[in-house]
Structure formats: C-alpha cells, structure tokens
Specification:
Elements: H1 2-11, H2 21-36, H3 57-70, E1 78-82, E2 85-86, E3 91-92, H4 95-106, E4 113-118, H5 124-134, E5 141-145, H6 153-159, H7 162-169, H8 180-190, E6 194-202, H9 212-224, E7 227-235, H10 244-248, E8 253-256, H11 265-277, E9 282-284
Parallel strand pairs: 1-4, 4-5, 6-7, 6-8, 8-9
Antiparallel strand pairs: 2-3
Length: 288
C-alpha cells in the first residue's frame, strides 16, 4: 500500500499535494479491497493484529470510511476478542473484551458480531454482561471455546446461528448449509482408527512454527486415512552414524524438510541413508 502511494506521488498523481495517511493511504486500502472483491457477492477482509496497534490504524480508518460509503446493509463488522479464564478463581473475565470494543468505538467502529475466544464456554450471564457493556445484541455475542479439533469450529458457529445472523444483516438469500463434510472430517480427526509415527529431521526445531505448513499437511493426510499422526521432531545436527539407529528405530516414516545453509546437512544425509537401507518410507523436500 505505502509503496504504491509513494510511486503515485513520484509520478505526480497527487499534483504536488502533501501525501498524507488520510486520504491517500486509506484511499489505496479501499481501492485494493474493492479490486480484490470484484465480481464477488461477498468479500471477507481481515484486519490483523491488535486493535490499538499503530500499524493497524490506517486499515481501521479505511473500513470506517467504507461503511459510510457502502451503507450499513452492505457492511458487517465482526470482532474477535479474548475472554480469559482465571483457573484459580474459576471464572472468566469480560473486562478485556469491554476494553477492546471501547477501543474499536474510539475508531468509529461498532462491532455487529463479537466472537469471544475462551478456554471455557461462556455462560448466558457472561454473554448478557458483554452485550450490555459493548452495545452488541446478546444473540450476536458468540462463544468460541477451545475444541479438540479446529474443524469443529464451523459446526459450533452454525449451532449459534452465526451464518443466519450474517445473511440476515447483509440481506443475503442463502440455502441451509450442508455441514456433512465438516462433520465427517471432525469425526475422522477426533476418532482415528490407527496411528503412525513420522520422524521429522530438520534444522529449526527450536521454532516449530517453521514447519507449520508441513505439520498441517500431515494432519490432513491423517484425516483422509483416519490416522493419528505422531511427529517426532529431531534436530539433524544431533544425528550421527553412531546414534542414528537408536534415534530413528521404530518410526513408520522419515521426513526431511528444507532449510538454508550447510548446518545440519550431514544429519539429513545420514537419516536418508538410514531410510534407504532399512526400507523406511522417506520424503525429502527441497534441501531434503
């Protein structure tokens, strides 16, 4: 966004005027939202980060302007908040949600729906309290507690009629959702018929998020075959010819992901050799 505005300024598109966050940055954000949603009936736009962070303020201002321009029947604000559970007291705290919504209101944004993330399900009393202090209808205060499978979330939202609230507010005509596939996936994820152990021999084991996409791919593969996937994260630097048999013994498969530089490559090669000599299914990605 900022790069585009700077290029436009250098081309003289602003006729020598002072380039400012408002309207130049916000106009570019709105332009990109409209361009990205072209020919679509509904555009879902996520404003990441935390409300109040300075980086997100131009985006919040842009969507405030868009609601004025498009009208309330063509826009809907859904706000995700945290409702902490204090285990020692055995109660949830709604104050962070109240403060978060007040921060939204300070930007001229009134949430239409509140999605409340929490460790425990919200009680009716808590939902009523949140609704009262945030100026959101109680039916639009949605409880989203921790679940064993992320694929249960669409089913939970459907049970609380989030889809109905959205379609009603946006005046959309939609048929009743078919969630059979979601239910099938959830059942396969939470009730696997068997399990396999996969050794992941990589170089960034201190940062598991580095392999997030691989982990999710393995989970999805497990769901397809109704398997629980156990992943053993192994630092390739620690694998030597003298200990490879002890470290990799008993695994069902070996996966070597990509990486940069020479560090840990010897351990990856040893793991690949072990897989070949012991007829263990092996997958090497990029460097692997």
């Amino acid at each position: 966004v900022y790069e585009t505005v700077l290029k436009n300024e250098r081309k003289g598109d602003y006729l020598g005027g002072t380039v400012q966050v408002i309207p130049h940055i916000t106009d570019e954000i709105k332009r990109r939202i409209l361009k990205g949603s072209k020919n679509s009936e509904v555009a879902i736009v996520e404003i990441g980060g935390t409300v109040g962070d300075i980086e997100s303020q131009p985006f919040l201002e842009a969507i405030r302007q868009m609601k004025l321009e498009l009208g309330s029947k063509r826009t809907l604000f859904m706000h995700l908040t945290l409702v902490p559970y204090i285990a020692a007291a055995g109660e949830i705290k709604t104050k962070p949600t109240q403060r978060s919504v007040k921060e939204m209101l300070s930007h001229g944004l009134q949430p239409d729906i509140l999605i409340c993330r929490s460790e425990k399900e919200l009680s009716e009393e808590a939902r009523g309290k949140i609704a009262l202090f945030t100026n959101v209808e109680e039916q639009s205060v949605i409880s989203l507690p921790d679940v064993k499978s992320i694929y249960k979330i669409p089913i939970q939202l459907n049970l609380q009629k989030v889809d109905e609230i959205v379609t009603e507010k946006l005046n959309l005509s939609c048929k009743k959702p078919d969630l059979d596939d979601w239910k099938r996936v959830t059942d396969a994820h939470t009730n696997p018929k068997s399990e396999v152990t996969i050794a992941m021999v990589g170089k960034y084991m201190d940062l598991k998020d580095a392999y997030k996409s691989l982990n999710e791919a393995l989970v999805h593969g497990g769901i397809q075959h109704e398997l629980k996937i156990n992943i053993n994260y192994l630092d390739s630097e620690n694998i030597k010819p003298t200990n490879v048999n002890k470290i990799l013994k008993g695994v069902d498969a070996i996966l070597v992901p990509g990486g940069f530089g020479h560090r840990g490559i010897e351990g990856m090669i040893i793991a690949a050799e072990y897989a070949r000599e012991n007829m263990i299914p092996y997958l090497g990605i990029c460097l692997g």
